[in-house]
Amino acid sequence: MSPRISEITVENGEYERVVLCLDEDSGYHGIIAIHSTVLGPAVGGTRFWHYEDEEAALRDALRLSRGMTYKCALAEVPFGGGKSIIIGDNKVIDRGPIFRAHGRFVETFGGCYITAEDVGTTTADMEYVRKETCYVAGLAGQSGDPSPVTARGVFRAIQAAAKYLWDSDSLLGRSVAIQGCGSVGYYLADYLHRVGAKLIVTDIDAARAHRLVTELGALRVGPEEIYGVRADIFAPCALGGIINDRTIPQLKVAMIAGAANNQLLESRHGDGLSERGILYAPDYVINAGGVINGCRELLGWSSSYSATKVDEIYGTLLRVFNLAKVEGIPPYKAADRLAELRLNAHAI
Question: How far apart are CA 23 and CA 101, in angstroms?
Fold first, then answer.
């Protein structure tokens, strides 16, 4: 049976293409959202996750693809924003049929969308995708796992936020509450530990959190406790939407700077953080290390050049904070403004 592919209309007209694919033979159920190709082909990883329903998956795809557009704009890389969602159980063992079906779906976009790994997917999964399309990055032996590079960018951003807030980017003795101890969270914790930060960690997978307790001397707390711990910095490194009406009143931190995408459930929650005097480092500004790492593969950048670009996240975040201060607006609005300036300049 041939896969069923259908276009999805987004009412606000902001997205260039949003497409649904169902392939019963492989059990594939996917969405690809392309937000913008103004700066170049849309890039964005493939997220494999069990969603409540298709509508929830679509919302995630739209938010994530838009975030990729803004991320690429502020990272000053020649790509636009897109995202793939595969709906289902990412613990499935026989992954080949699903990811080959996904590769065929990616191929239908003719190069205007390029994918890579994301939450719930691996470089091995991308090898299956490559059997069906050349529009895939993050492959083993090339740019590979982006997690260490993403963590490096977030670490540099935390240093920048510390410089802005405390007039010193030293993190010695600073306490950092990390939510999510997977690949990026683990590498970020390691960076922080090396400069003398004190770690408080949590993860829904207790074994992941325990690893940081054993290896780095972190203090482990329960998943719901993390919002109320007293710390200097809160670093969300799991899923999005965790800054919301329920969690904001619990926070006892000076700043939020983490790797998770779409940390604000709604834009107004960025205003809520400012009202509480909590400095927010916009997620798409500081977690751009992964897409920068992919440029080694897509554009032939050297590892040293891409490392320099990742370290530039430090200066970019300071520009965001300074604009926010001058204009009297929350940092998330300042970041959007800087990204839109670059997008508008290229749209002319």
Answer: 7
CB contact set of 169 (below 8 Å; sequence gap of 6+): 159, 160, 162, 163
Asked if 40 and 112 touch (Cβ cutoff 8 Å), the reply is: no
Residue whose token pair is 């670009």: 309
Q: 4-67+79-130, superfamily in CATH?
A: Leucine Dehydrogenase, chain A, domain 1 (3.40.50.10860)
- pLDDT tens for 167-210 read 999 999 999 999 999 999 999 999 999 999 999 999 999 999 99
Render pLDDT for 135-162 as a digit per residue (tens, 0 to 9). Answer: 999 787 777 678 899 999 999 999 999 9
- What is the value of pTM for the model shown? 0.92
Q: What is the CATH number of domain 147-290+298-344?
A: 3.40.50.720
Instruction: Quickly list H helices, 108-173.
Output: 123-130, 147-166
**In whole angstroms, what separates CA 103 from the centre of its chain?**
22
Whether 83 is a known active-site residue: answer yes
Q: Which amino acid type is present at position 283?
A: D
Catalytic residue among 83, 198, 309, 333: 83
For 113, how many CA atoms within 13 A lie in the half-sphere containing its CB? 28
Angle at 325 between CA 323 and CA 327, to 5 degrees: 65
Q: Quote the tokens at residue 160.
A: 């920048």
> Residue ranges per domain, the chain?
4-67+79-130, 147-290+298-344
Residues 75, 93: Cα–Cα separation, whole Å: 36
Strands (E), 180-333: 198-202, 219-220, 233-236, 255-256, 279-280
Alpha carbon 343 to its chain's center = 20
Q: What are phi and psi of 307, to 5 degrees?
A: -65, -40
